Amino acid sequence: MSKAKRIAIIGGGFGGLSAAISLRSRGFEVDLYEMTATLGGKAGTRNLGNYRFDTGPSLLTLPQVFDRLFSKAGKRREDYVEFMPLDPITNYWFSDGSRLAGRPLPFLIDELEKSLGVPRQESERFFSYAEDIHTLTTPVFLERSLHEFSTWVSKPAFKAYSQIHKVDIFRTMYSSLSSFFSSTKAIQLFSRFATYNGSDPYQAPATLNTIAYVEYGLGGFGVKGGIFALTKALEKLCTDIGVIIRRNTKVESIELDKSDRIQGVLIRPLGQDTSSIPYDAVVSDLDILTLYEHILKKPKDSAPIRFKKLPPSTSGLVFYWGMNKSYPDLGVNNIFFSQDYQKEFFQIHHEQRLPDDPTVYVNITSKISPEDAPPGGENWFVLVNAPPDGGQNWQEIAKYYRKKVIKILEASLGVDVEKAIEVEEILDPKSIMENTGSWRGSLYGISSNTKAAAFLRPSNRVKKYPGLYTVGGSVHPGGGMPLVTLSGMIAAELLEKYEGSVE
Ligand SMILES: Cc1cc2nc3c(=O)[nH]c(=O)nc-3n(C[C@H](O)[C@H](O)[C@H](O)COP(=O)(O)OP(=O)(O)OC[C@H]3O[C@@H](n4cnc5c(N)ncnc54)[C@H](O)[C@@H]3O)c2cc1C
Predict the structure, then answer these.
(1) 179 located within any domain
(2) Which residues of 34-58 are buried (b: 16+ CB within 10 A; e: fewer)?
(3) In this predicted structure, what is the pLDDT of residue 1?
(4) Does residue 116 sit in the same domain as residue 213?
């Protein structure tokens, strides 16, 4: 009787979960190892008193990626978790006191005109351009491996070559936005999308303008029960289709034979001795540098040396505040912009420090999931962009920025914030690194500040170590929940191609 190939997945973030589901759906035997007690990695959950918080991601885009993952496993996403289209998606406050309701298209065009005086033709031209980038790049850059010859000679690739000027690779996001909009506020608004993969709009290629279309053209979503409800849904799907999940089990190393082919993994279940388990292939959901340094123990390979030279994405300083009051002016997602955006990004990306005047993001899941806070209260997730960990004194920094952030919010909202904080906890880049193994606590792996980093992220298949595949925010196609989930699907396809199908 033939026997299905056995695959180990290291890490239960969205990338690992997606790879596990995709491989199991293809008939492989899959064991998923997660070093902590809970799955989800950065997309975890935390309870403080009577408040519940999502630990990391908050805004969901491209929900169809998740629908596809469920349907590949023969299930319906709607039977597991509810996505809630947001309108407005985000509320914006500008430093001069003006406000904008970030509603989905076509309403955003009216809002831009009404609140910021942006001529309709400017917005219409911009969104048609951003939609073109999305249509041309998605089938080539996001849904396939860029390290396969077949991708470059595929039909969608030839379509993209023939209209390459539309992909806007050579300008920066900022210079492109300045060519569409006369309003500095509109430029600031759309520059913000560079932060969706931890990049700097003054350096990152204009191709990233596609994100504005993805969010406002295709929609921004909340999840009923918070993003962690999606983590739980993926976990249930894994269990339903027969993925074996081993929590509290750290993978200490990957074992190779003499020709550097994957042999298996060395695991350490919590409180127990290590044991060696053979596998036909391994999928790593770890940050690529953590994988090379700590698990493969090959820090001198050319790959990690090259990746270390690429700029890591930003990290974040997060305040989880249980508020004993509610704030009707706020929605699920709220942005309080700094006055000088260029200076803010310069300080984060070049000076590697928190900006003097930070843009503040407030996410409140209890607006759509009231059970996340006690009656009359709200659960605030408050984030400022931060450089990755470089040995800073985060306790001191957090103390200083707590005051600053409260001052910004109180001035913008004209109400008390500090007095309403009933419970709180802080997450800094060092704790993100320690909790999830992400390199220097970066949120999205490598940033897209250079063209090499944006378009040539590490492959989902490690050729040097046959049988090793990679997923997650630091590899192709990039960070953020939908892309990381796509990485799991791409890796599964590659694994089947190179390791042979199930038998
Ligand atoms: C504060 C914050 C805000 C964010 N906001 C957004 C947002 O709004 N929208 C969005 O789309 N994205 C957002 N992101 C990014 C998003 O969370 C990530 O891109 C995505 O969740 C990363 O998934 P991943 O598969 O790379 O793995 P991770 O989430 O990094 O998970 C890796 C897993 O591997 C486990 N692990 C590590 N080492 C080992 C080992 N040796 N053995 C076994 N297990 C191991 C870890 O415990 C962890 O569970 C945010 C992230 C953060 C932190």
Answers:
(1) yes
(2) bbbebbbbbbbbbeeebbbbbbbbb
(3) 43
(4) yes
